[in-house]
Prior knowledge:
- One of its GO terms (molecular function) is DNA binding.
- The structure is a single chain.
- This protein is mainly alpha-helical.
- It is globular, with a radius of gyration of 13 Å.
- The protein starts with a strand and ends in a 10-residue tail after the last strand.
- It has one domain (3-68): 434 Repressor (Amino-terminal Domain).
- 52% of the residues lie in helices and 8% in strands.
Amino acid sequence: MPIIVNLDVMMAKRKISLNELSRRVGITVSNLSILKNSKAKAIRFSTLEALCRELKCQPGDILEYVEEDKDSITP
């Protein structure tokens, strides 16, 4: 997937646990874990806003676009 979620990196930089971030943002630990492990298919802007507010960062600090290698894509 060309969108990389760097939530774990930002959490480590801010020294905040999954449980604490979940409590502050108001999302379940399981949903936050799905996002953190790049298993989510989508994210609401309100969730992204809350994460950025609590982690004191920009959306680009959490989400990153990486182009896929066209040779590695199977038809």
